[in-house]
Amino acid sequence: MKTAITPTRSENYPEWYQQVIKAADLAEISPVRGCMIIKPWGYALWEGIQKELNMRFQETGVENIYCPLFIPMRFLEKEAEHVDGFAKECAVVTHHRLEADKDGKLQPAGPLTEPLVVRPTSETLIGDMFSKWIASYRDLPILVNQWANIVRWEMRTRMFLRTTEFLWQEGHTAHTSSEEAVTQSLEKLDLYAEFCENILAMPVIKGEKSETERFPGALNTYCVEAMMQDGKALQAGTSHFLGQNFSKAFNIEYLGEDEQKHHCWTTSWGVSTRLIGGLIMTHSDDDGLRVPPRIAPKHVVILPIMHNDDTDELLEFCKSIENHLKKTTYHGEPIRVTIDKRPLRGGEKAWSWVKKGAPIRLEIGRKELEQKSVFMGRRDLGYKEKKTLSIDDFYTNITALLDEIQSNYKNQAESFQKDNIQVVSDDKALYTCFKKNTGFVAGYWCEDANIEAQLKKDLSVTVRCFPLDHAEEGPCIFTGKPGRWTIFAKAY
Amino acid sequence: MKTAITPTRSENYPEWYQQVIKAADLAEISPVRGCMIIKPWGYALWEGIQKELNMRFQETGVENIYCPLFIPMRFLEKEAEHVDGFAKECAVVTHHRLEADKDGKLQPAGPLTEPLVVRPTSETLIGDMFSKWIASYRDLPILVNQWANIVRWEMRTRMFLRTTEFLWQEGHTAHTSSEEAVTQSLEKLDLYAEFCENILAMPVIKGEKSETERFPGALNTYCVEAMMQDGKALQAGTSHFLGQNFSKAFNIEYLGEDEQKHHCWTTSWGVSTRLIGGLIMTHSDDDGLRVPPRIAPKHVVILPIMHNDDTDELLEFCKSIENHLKKTTYHGEPIRVTIDKRPLRGGEKAWSWVKKGAPIRLEIGRKELEQKSVFMGRRDLGYKEKKTLSIDDFYTNITALLDEIQSNYKNQAESFQKDNIQVVSDDKALYTCFKKNTGFVAGYWCEDANIEAQLKKDLSVTVRCFPLDHAEEGPCIFTGKPGRWTIFAKAY
User: Fold this and answer.
1) Does residue B480 have a pLDDT over 80?
2) Which residue of B lies nearest to A127 if distances are taken between CA atoms?
C-alpha cells in the first residue's frame, strides 16, 4: 500500500521522523548550524503547549517573568557541578561589534572584559535575583516561570529533539523548608504528567533519575518519560529539587520566624520544544502527523470541492459551517476551524491535511451543498474511511467526536506503552530484550553506577528512572543486592 | 501634598520614570550589563500586548513562526546599508565552550570558524528563508511574524526604552508588486495605531520617516509616534517598505504568471517592550503607574480589611465578588480580578495597588460585608476619591466603569497631545519652542538633511515624521522652498 511518508516507520524510523516533519511543514533546518526554523503549524503546536501550561502554572500561583539571555561567566562558576555540566556546550559572546578589517572583511571588535554565556539554563541568574528579592520568610515561597530560548551547543542535532537553540519554559521556586521544596517539585511533575496525558495524549511514567542522570547541581531530579513508537524513551519533562546548593552558591537567605538567617530550598522545572518531537513520535503513522484534538492548531478543516458554476454558494455553505463551529465550545474554547481555498485538486488538498494530522476533514462539494451534509474524514481512522453526515448530526456530535479522537490516540499510545514494557528478573533477560530492541525493560537495580556505565557501553541503554508508583525494593537483577524498581531503555 | 513617587514628574522626569517602574515592581536592572529583568506585573503587560496583537495579526492572515537567535556574519554583509546600520551594536558569539586554563579560570574555547551575531533584527535570515520558500506567484503573499528577543549593544540604557536585550515582534512579508507591499506596510501601521489608541489609550501620529531616520535597507519607513508627558516623542512602532533591496541581496524570486522570474517586494514591521515605557510615560502620575483597563493585568483588586473575628465570612464575601466578576465578560474576556490577602495594613495594601495602577480597588471590611456593598477606589480619579456602592450596583456598572476609565485615560492623553503641538511658520519660532521645551513642533520642511543635522546639533531635536494625514506641501520654514508637513521633537 502506498503511504504518504517514505520511508515508513518500519523501513527507517529516524528518516521517517524527518519526513513527517517535512510533510507536515512543522519545521526545517536553518542555515545556522544546529538551529531550526519552526514553521506555522509547528509553532502553533508550541503556542498550544504554552497556553495549556500557563493556565496550569497560574492555578498553582506561578507568575511569569523574563530574565536576560546572557549570563556573566563568573555566575556560572559559582556552582561547581553546574558549571561542569554546561561548560562544554556554551555559546560564548566575546565582542560587542563588528568592524571591517583592511580587506573590508567584517571581524569581531570591541572585546568584552568578561565573556557572556548565552543561557544554557537560568538557575545562576535566578539565584542572584532570589538573593536580592528574598529577605524574610514572609517573602516565601517565590514561584516564577519564564518562557525563553536556550542555547546548548550540540554536535549532533535532530529537529525538535536536540537542537543548539530550543524554546522552553523554566520554573524556579524558593521555599523555607526542604519538604515544601520537594512537594513543589513533585507537584510540577504531576502537572507535567497530567498535561502530557490529557492534552498531548502521551502517557508518561513519573520517576526519579539515577544519580548519573541528575541535573548538574540538583539533589534529585524527577522526570516524566514517554515511550516512542520505536520503543525508545523520550524524557518529556524534568523537575529538580536543588536542595540548598544554589542558595549557598548565591546567598539566597531569609530571616525566619525564629529571627535567624537560613538558606532557602529551591527547585526548578522545565519542558521544551522537544515535547513536539515526542508528540510526533507518539502518534504519527506512515501517512504523516496525527495531532490529538486538545493540542491541534485546527480541529476541523473544511475543503470546498469547487466547480465553476457553484463556487459562491458552495463557499457560503462552507462559511456557514465555519461560523457555526466557531461558536461551538470545545473544552472551554471555540472550535478551531479553517477553510482551505487553495486552488489544488481535492485529493491533493485532502492529503496535505492528512499529512498535517488535522483531526477532522470535511470535503464539501455540490452533493453536500444540496443535501446539507458533510463528507467527513477522521485522521484517527486513516485516510480512506470517510462518511456522509447530515450537517445537523455533525453539529450535534462534533465535540463528542473530537473527544473520541482524543481518547483513541491516548488509548493507542497507552496500549503500545503497556505492550512494550518487559519485566525481567536477571541481567541475561535484560540483554536479550535490548538485543531485540523491544522498548522499556523494568527490573530491580542496586544503583551501582558501574553497571549503569556498562549498560551504556554494551547496549546504549540508560537508566530512565525509578518509577514513583513502585516504591518497594527487590533483589537487583545484576547483583542480587537490594535494589530499586528501575526502567531501562534506549533514549532520545 | 505627599505623593507616592519621589521625585515628582515636574521635579525630575527621568528619575520619576525609574521610580514608577520600581514602585509598580515592573522590572529591575540585572547584573548583566544593559539587560533588565521583567517582573510579573511588567511581564503581564507584555503578555497582554502579545495577545491583542496576535489576534489582530491573525485576522490579517499573518502566521507565527520562530527563527534562530544567531545570524551568520556573512548574511549580515549581504545588504550594505543594513550591515552599516547594525555592525556597531552586535553581540558576537565566537566560541562554543568554556575551558579552565592552567590557573583553573574559565576561558572561552572551541573557536567558531565563522562568528555568529545575536540577532539585532531578522531581515537577513528571513531573506534567506523566503528565497527557499518562494518559487511561484502562487506562493505569494507570504505573511509571517515572530515574537523574539533581540540584542543591540547599547551604551546608555534605560529600562523598557533602550536595553541591550529587548523583546519584540517582527513581521515579514513578501509580495508580487510594489503597490501590494506598500499597502501591507500601511495596513500594519494602521493596525499599530488602532492598537495603541484603543488598547493602550495612547494616541499616536501616523507618519513617514525622513531619509535619515529610515530603517537600514528600507526604501521607506512608516511609524507611529506618541507624545510622552515631558513632551518628548516615543517611536511606538515602525513598518518598513523594503522595496527589492533584500530580495535582490537574498535572491527572493518568483515565477510570475508571465512565466518570467521577478524579485519580490518585501516589508517588515515591529513593536517592542518599549511600548511598556510608552504606556508608563503616557498615563502615570506622581502616585505611580496608571494602566488602562484594556491592558491591565488585573482590572479589579479586592482588598479584604481583616479583623480577628470575622475573617472567614469576610473572605467568603470577597470570594463571591471574585467569582461573580470572573463570570462577567469585558471585551470578550472574563474580568481579571484578584484578592490581595497579604498580611499588610489596609493603607499600605491599597497604596501598593495605586502604585501598580490597577484600575479599580475594592476595600471590603465589616461594614461592606454587613451592607453587601463595596468601598471602591478608581485609579483614574486618584487615591482619595472613593465611594460606597451596593454590590448589585457595582455588578451592574462594572464593565461600563472600566470603559469609562479607559476613555478617561485616552481623552487625557489626547488633550495633552493636542495642547502640546505647536504649529510654526518660521525657524525662529521653532527654536523658541524647543528652548522652552514644549512638546512637538509642526511645520513645513524641504527635506534638506543638513537642516536636520543642524537641529540635532543645536537642539537635540529630530524629524519625527511626515504625518500621513497632511499631504499638502507648503513653504519650508527654513528655506522657503516647497516642503512637507513635518513633526519635529526631542525623542526617546
Assistant:
1) yes
2) B31
Peptide bond connecting B141 to the previous residue in cis, omega within 30 degrees of 0: yes
Rg (CA), chain B: 26
Cβ of A66 within 8 Å of Cβ of B46? The answer is yes
Q: Are A360 and A337 in contact (CB under 8 A)?
A: no
Within 10 angstroms of residue B472's Cβ, the number of other Cβ atoms is: 7
* Cβ pair B98:A118 closer than 8 A: no
Is A76 at the interface with chain B, CB within 8 A? yes
What is the average pLDDT value for chain A, to the nearest integer?
Answer: 95
Q: Indicate if ipTM > 0.90.
A: yes
Q: Which residues pair with B465 in a beta bridge?
A: B487
**Angstrom distance (rounded) from CA A274 to CA A160:** 5
C-alpha cell at B274: 518599549
Question: Is A97's Cβ below 8 Å from some Cβ in B?
Answer: yes
Distance from CA of A327 to the nearest CA of B (A): 13
A29 touches chain B (CB under 8 A): no
What pLDDT, in 10s, does the model give residues A286-329? Answer: 999 999 999 999 999 999 988 766 678 999 999 999 999 999 99
The CA-to-CA distance between both ends of chain A, in Å, stands at 30
A371-376 long-range contacts (CB < 8 A, ≥24 apart) are A372/A317, A374/A321
Rounded Cα–Cα distance for residues A179 and A176 (Å): 9
Contact between B31 and A93 using a beta-carbon 8 Å cutoff: no
Contact B92 A92 (CB under 8 A): no
Q: Give the Cα-Cα-Cα angle A34, A224, A288 (nearest 5 degrees).
A: 55
Task: Classify B386 as helix, strand or coil.
Answer: strand
Residue A320: how many other CB atoms lie within 10 Å:
12
Q: Do A46 and B66 touch (CB under 8 A)?
A: yes
Name the DSSP class of B31.
S
CB contact under 8 A, A118 and B118: yes
Note whether A346 contacts B: Cβ–Cβ < 8 A: no
Span A440-451, mean pLDDT?
Answer: 97
Task: State how far the Cα of A152 lies from the Cα of A89, in Å rounded to an integer.
Answer: 5
| CA B189/CA B457 separation, integer angstroms | 30
**pLDDT at position B47:** 98
**Cβ-proximal residues to A90 (8 Å cutoff; 6+ apart), any chain:** A76, A117, A118, A120, A151, A152, A153, B96, B97, B98
Q: What is the pLDDT of residues B117-165, one digit of tens each?
A: 999 999 999 999 999 999 999 999 999 999 999 999 988 899 999 999 9
Which stretches of B391-481 are assigned E, i.e. beta strand? 421-423, 440-445, 462-467, 474-475
pLDDT of residue A377: 96
Q: What is the pLDDT of residues B257-316, one digit of tens each?
A: 999 999 999 999 999 999 999 999 999 999 999 999 999 999 999 999 887 666 789 999
Under 8 Å CB pairs connecting chains A and B tally to 179
If you average pLDDT over residues B45-49, what whole number do you get?
Answer: 98
> Closest Cα partner for A29 from A42, A45, A11?
A42
- Cβ distance B153 to A87 less than 8 Å, yes or no, reads no
Of A428-437, B119-128, B440-449, the poorest mean pLDDT is in A428-437
Confidence class for position A384, pLDDT limits 50, 70, 90: confident
Could you give the C-alpha distances from B469 to A48, B206, B295, B444, B485, in angstroms and in order? 40, 8, 27, 14, 10
Report pLDDT for B80: 81
Residues 416-455 of B with CB under 8 A from A: none
A330 touches chain B (CB under 8 A): no
Q: Is the pLDDT of residue B92 over 90?
A: yes
Cβ separation of A68 and B116 shorter than 8 Å?
Answer: no
Nearest to B37 among A39, A68, A117 (CB): A68
In this complex, do A66 and B43 lie within 8 Å of one another by their Cβ atoms? Answer: yes
